[in-house]
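Whiteboard transcription, Tuesday session. T.W. wrote the structure tokens on the left side:
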């Protein structure tokens, strides 16, 4: 660690104050995928970083996550390619199907085609594996668990963060990577409610051999139907598990990866759907459900020496599979912007970070909302138009994805 942890004996109400000794000191609040990625990208740029996480241990839920080439290239450059190739699944394609008869509406080759066209793999991970890959690369001494940020105060030359346990810490820059209900965002921009989408996601994870008889291909498969959609794919080393997410309308508003849902309720929502969808849902013994929220675009992400990233800055519905991916892009750009910044005047660097990232992240937020409408069209004229458009697209990885998957956010900084 470049900085030093010092006990501050002069302030009895505070247990510790971090005093750093290097040119730039950054505190990241939140050790989710975004916060851990930021730790790695900032450290690579020689910046002194400490991460504070409210949970007493790092844990991810039993669910899958898709990481597209625009983020996997960043993680590979951080030296994570070996464990990613070992623990990730490379889907052969993205396949879109009709809800009732299973007719294939479109197919985009991935695997080798994604690597050729976009320069890096498209992966499916078990979330716990991805978190392990990231956290294994972060030295434990700079990761402070059981530290919930409860407030912060900005000074001319630094920001001070307060934690629930009485500890405090200070740095040149504080990054809120603390998720959709960000305390950091509330502290610097005032409270604002997330927007309930009217949709609920049920999710399930089953040992792959339990669905082997269905002969499901190694692909990201999305079934679209009226008001609902269903996505499934393999995760875990060698594709050990089959992961699914079933999105339904609903008024249940609890956001929790651990809240239980009833398998029978999920099956009822998918009454009349293709037998394969119902067989995959029915293969689990338990299911979890998660109310889906996003937020209006924030006018800005930065106030003084404090900025935001990931879901704290741009929470999005999961309909482009870009929430975590965009947080990894944030981490890469933030580090490049701070690399040569003056710790006394970080405003230009944070402004550049925000200006670089906001258009892309906002496009994903808005695109995800639009996909929520497009995926769920009732059968009829609009749905037929949608299906015809999809069918007429090229069979190479769709060119319209090049802006997203093919873009290298670090490239402009190497010129
Ligand atoms: C059903 C579903 C499917 C999804 N699928 C995909 C996908 O395939 N691909 C993809 O890229 N994205 C996907 N996403 C989105 C993705 O999960 C999120 O965008 C991503 O996890 C956000 O990461 P983050 O690090 O910004 O925030 P989070 O993962 O929310 O992490 C925030 C961290 O901050 C901590 N924290 C919170 N408050 C405090 C505090 N006050 N003090 C200290 N620590 C605090 C939390 O404990 C947590 O560890 C999906 C989302 C859903 C709901």
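and on the right, the sequence the group agreed on:
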């Amino acid at each position: 660690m470049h900085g030093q942890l010092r006990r501050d004996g002069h302030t009895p109400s505070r247990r510790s104050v971090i005093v750093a000794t290097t040119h730039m000191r950054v505190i990241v609040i939140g050790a989710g995928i975004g916060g851990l990625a930021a730790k790695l990208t900032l450290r690579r740029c020689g910046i002194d970083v400490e991460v504070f996480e409210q949970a007493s241990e790092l844990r991810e839920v039993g669910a899958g996550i898709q990481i597209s080439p625009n983020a996997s290239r960043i993680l590979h450059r951080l030296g994570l390619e070996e464990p990613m190739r070992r623990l990730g699944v490379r889907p052969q394609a993205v396949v879109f199907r009709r809800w009732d008869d299973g007719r294939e509406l479109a197919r985009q080759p991935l695997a080798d085609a994604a690597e050729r066209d976009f320069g890096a793999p498209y992966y499916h991970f078990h979330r716990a594996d991805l978190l392990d890959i990231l956290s294994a690369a972060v030295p434990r001494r700079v990761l402070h668990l059981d530290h919930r940020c409860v407030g912060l105060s900005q000074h001319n030359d630094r920001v001070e963060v307060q934690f629930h346990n009485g500890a405090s810490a200070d740095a040149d820059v504080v990054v809120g990577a603390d998720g959709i209900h960000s305390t950091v965002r509330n502290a610097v921009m005032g409270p604002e409610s997330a927007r309930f989408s009217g949709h609920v996601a049920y999710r399930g994870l089953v040992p792959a051999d339990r669905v082997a008889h269905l002969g499901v291909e190694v692909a990201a498969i999305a079934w679209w139907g009226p008001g609902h959609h269903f996505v499934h794919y393999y995760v875990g080393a060698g594709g050990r598990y089959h992961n699914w997410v079933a999105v339904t309308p609903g008024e249940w508003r609890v956001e929790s990866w651990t809240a239980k849902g009833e398998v029978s309720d999920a099956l009822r929502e998918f009454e009349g759907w293709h037998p394969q969808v119902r067989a995959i849902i029915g293969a689990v013994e338990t299911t979890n459900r998660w109310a889906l929220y996003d937020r209006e675009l924030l006018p800005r992400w930065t106030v003084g020496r404090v900025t935001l990233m990931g879901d704290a800055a741009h929470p999005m519905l999961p309909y482009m599979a870009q929430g975590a991916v965009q947080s990894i892009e944030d981490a890469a750009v933030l580090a490049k912007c701070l690399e040569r910044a003056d710790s006394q005047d970080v405003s230009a660097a944070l402004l550049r970070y925000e200006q670089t990232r906001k258009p892309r992240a906002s496009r994903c937020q808005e695109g995800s909302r639009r996909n929520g409408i497009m995926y769920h069209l009732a059968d009829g004229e609009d749905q037929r138009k949608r299906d015809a458009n999809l069918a007429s697209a090229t069979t190479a990885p769709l060119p319209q994805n090049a802006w997203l998957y093919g873009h290298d956010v670090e490239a402009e900084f190497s010129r």
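Someone added at the bottom: Residues 29-35, 52-55, 65-66, 148-149, 177-179, 183, 201, 245, 290, 310-311, 318, 321-325, 327 surround flavin-adenine dinucleotide (CB under 6 Å).
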